Fold each of these.
Amino acid sequence: MALTGKESIAVDFEELFAFDQALSEKLLEKPDEFLVHADNALYSQLGIEDAEYAERMEKTTARIVGLLGKEQLRKLGSKQMGKLVMIEGIVVRATPVRPMVMQASFKCKRCGTVSRVEQTGSFLRAPFECSDPSCRQKGPFEFVQEESSFIDSQDLRLQERPEDLPPGQLPRALNVKLVGTEIVDLARPGDHVSVVGVVRAVAPTMPGIGKLRTFILHLDANSLEVLGKEPETSLPSPEEEEKILELAKDPWVHRKIVSSIAPSIYGYEHIKEAIMYLLFGGVSKSLPDISIRGEMNALLIGDPGTAKSQLLQYVARIAPRGLYTSGRGTTAAGLTAAVIREKGGSMSLEAGALVLADKGIACIDEMDKMRPEDRVAIHEAMEQHTVSVAKGGIVATLNARTAILAAANPALGRYEPHRTVAENISLPVTILSRFDLIFVLRDIPDKEADGKMSGHILEIHRKGLSPVEAPIEPELLRKYVSYAKTIKPILSSESLKRLSDFYLAMRGASETEGSPVAITARQLESLVRVAEARARAALKKEVSAEDAEAAIAIMKKSLEEVGIDLSSYKMDIDLIMTGKPKSVRDRMQVVISTLMKMEKETGMVEKAMLVSELESEQKIPRTDVERMVQQLLREGTIYEPREGFLKKT
Ligand SMILES: Nc1ncnc2c1ncn2[C@@H]1O[C@H](COP(=O)(O)OP(=O)(O)OP(=O)(O)O)[C@@H](O)[C@H]1O
Ligand SMILES: [Mg+2]
Ligand SMILES: [Zn+2]
């Protein structure tokens, strides 16, 4: 302590237990008494070791770490009141650091004598009577700030970790009070922490009525440790590790994993393959100047009743630190971070879903039904993997290294093949370009497939269990995934060659055409992530040519699904990324410029006038104009100030 200039020391509970079991048990039973003994013992020992340093210290604290067993947050109750416990959880809210008075000085207004009062509890306490024997008045007193001593304090709100949550339960939360310069400001919202402290119960006061009979629990922290950022999963047992390694040796391991993903859902092999890549994820790289995300994002766009929600719910359950939320009722603040006004008027920061799913997978269903202003909040999280807030005097950036699996319905409810992709997908371009893989799920009547699928679904209903058994059971798969995530595969030279050949061919093809850019650096990065994820799934340290080929295949599949013809090697990424092929974009531009020109004359433009102007002057068919106007309206480029009138936004 003296060497590092600290005012507290960590005491390992296990060592204490080994040294004197009876003492360690008393510490757990009567922490209020024995923590004071520990502090006193620490202070007198410090006096022996370094008297000079001890002289300078006002207070020294023994912080107990690593109790033998941890208490579950949801099990805390009257039995633990006054006991020392260890609790793990995720910090969802943190107040700023605030000074708390420890020893308050009060000046007697009658004689001027200053009395000092030790402060405990949550309210400031004045002396009972003046300390001057000749005065002994019971007030009034005046608080003297300069002569009082303060200590830093902070309140945290701790929530159960998603991985500890029993299925279908709401997470519980607990307030934690931190006191001391060395313990405050250690944890930020989103951090996973282990706290040792004394369970307290306080009766809330109703102004003018009195105290309530039901108490509220909180924890007075004695020590706090920020745990590793990796999702906490119980390490595989030796037998499980053996099973995992055995599985990885199987040449068909990828097939086995794919068929273990939601076996009750029929078909969708390529989507399940994409989910496999999403589960394992690529390797994140942090260079001195920039960092590149390893987590992937995927989007499923599909007709109603194509099992999208089921797939998402499944992934949220199977993924380490998985989380499911639906678009409606999901706000920007709930997804990212919120600044909350506390009772006392101070502001505190609360972590949202994407921060809580840091290093996990967030499944966002019904993304098309989110309000656009809420959806925008995801942009930063999807590429930069952080969440920033600057509001109410709080400026903060939190980590949100979350893979996102989203689902949405087509713009018109059902996918209309004769419309362009952009017209079918009602999501803004900025968000589409952040998805590594996009798939379209269409519900097309097909006699043979329908027969097989109905057989499959009816079988489920008859037996109450899946007709296809998963080769890997969910519990093992979960462990397999977290085991694999510790591996960081490196790209082999062959795999590099495949990927760069594909990339250059695509770009080359578009160059000779003199057409818009075909494939962008974003897709190249996506390819790398998929290839790495595939290597990881087989616990390989190197990305092979085969992995690269598979990555290229699924990327092609994804691009084809969104309406790109790959056979001619002509790809128009602009189509998905900006939503329109170049020719269409040019025409849209004509519509907009004509509208703006007419707007100069009349303020707002009658729709019928615009249509006939474009038809006669630009020779664009009436139906096409109507369609483009609808599209522009949906995008928000133009709007309808009044029925039948248009205006540029
Ligand atoms: N391929 C399939 N295999 C098994 N069950 C299926 C399949 N497709 C659909 N179902 C069943 O159809 C039902 C509807 O699925 P779900 O609610 O996931 O649809 P959705 O795609 O989310 O639809 P919406 O877009 O309307 O939200 C579920 O009970 C699901 O099990
Ligand atoms: Mg659904
Ligand atoms: Zn007095």
Amino acid sequence: MSLMNPSIREMRQELSVGEQFVVRYNRPGPRYTSYPTAPVWTDSFGPHDFEQAIAAADSKRSPVSLYMHLPFCESLCLFCACNVVIQKDKSVTPPYLAILKKEIDRIARGVSRDRHVSQFHWGGGTPTYLSPEQIEDLFSYTKERFTFAPDAEIGIEVDPRVTTPAHMQSIRKMGFNRLSMGIQDFKPETQKAIHRIQPYEVTRDLIANARQLGFDSINVDLIYGLPYQTADSFAHTVEQIVDLSPDRIAMFSYAHVPWLKKQQGSFVKFLPEGMQKFDIFRSGLLKFLEAGYLYIGMDHFAKENDELAVSQRNRTLHRNFQGYTTKAGADLYGMGITAISGIQDTYAQNFRDIPSWEKAVNEHGLATMRGYRLSADDTLRREVISRLLCHTVIVKDEISKQFGINFDKYFAPELERLKTPQEDGLVVLNEKEIRTAWLGRIFIRNLAMVFDPYLEKQQLDSKPLFSKTL
Ligand SMILES: C[S@@+](CC[C@H](N)C(=O)[O-])C[C@H]1O[C@@H](n2cnc3c(N)ncnc32)[C@H](O)[C@@H]1O
Ligand code: SF4
């Protein structure tokens, strides 16, 4: 058992909450990949604002993180809430890649060559929808236009069902060192209901291939709360995952957002809800902890010696749109449809559909659909929320010094609102710090929400915005 996990017995005890508790805390809330969250951003922030942000950021000489969105998939998984374009006919890719190259050119012009790329991530959709030749071409094109740090993290999302040994050879040869693959669940009934048939052997072989090729880190995605899952069936899936021994696991809560993704309505009758969903989560969590993985927070696990775990212990862990990261202080430049950039005190998001994105790139080089410039209060709250999610503790003095405030005065209403979670055993408050208990680490979104003043207004709107926190 690791130093950071409490004993499994203690954990079982802390997690033995009742139905009422789950109902109270399982409510709609953001995942805080950004603060303020995307619904707060405005259409009045356009490409010219983003251009200014790019110029201002370049003079700061921060490290660079690049994200490339490759939206295509061959078939639709019914649970999927990602920004995808389903297309069997692969002739859609050359025109997409041509526009993407124009966008890469424009971004590269705004990033001086003495700034180092510390992170490069390809997400989707399914980047391995592209052929190995297309992947090599796009990768080389980008590499020629930026300066990569020798130890850059270069990651790609792959779908085991469509990723061939030739893809794997190519991506490793190009320099990708991190692999992330979707699994979701091995239960056949669940796979059938979500339209994602992915035999265990296919995943096992891909992981074995990745090991042979020497990838530094292998991540797998699971989802709890899918149709037909039970606590026992999910525990069995987790046992199979533990045997495959990935370095990191993302065990996402199924985000049910049928107002955005209509196809999710098809299996709504078979979804585990409330206490049932919590039991599935709990069985997965306990299995991973028993196997020696550390719970990093917000659905993520890592092996004890993984740098995510080390950096959480040292309180140097950060979060960005791709989740937890050890690379702090980088400006993130996103390319492709829907891609998000987070540069200094601004966020910018690209158009979501290919025609609008293409038109904007052709007109301006950039395709900003909406964005946001943070106020001083936003910047302070962003730091508080980030510390809560990454370090699970907020040391009041550190924030007071960094922002020239008196924490207790500034956050008096928030401290008052934390009293109920304190009574419920989620958080421990004292003069010096706000420290999350185990239960609070699981319902961390609820604790972060206390510091988010925009929610009150958002909840007044009748339209649902966020999935539930459990
Ligand atoms: C871009 S996909 C991963 C790569 C590849 N397309 C695949 O599916 O193997 C990103 C991940 O998002 C997660 N995801 C998608 N929709 C979700 C939802 N509604 N709730 C929770 N997680 C979701 C899945 O775990 C999925 O593996
Ligand atoms: S889960 Fe992956 S493969 Fe399935 S539709 Fe979403 S992005 Fe595509």
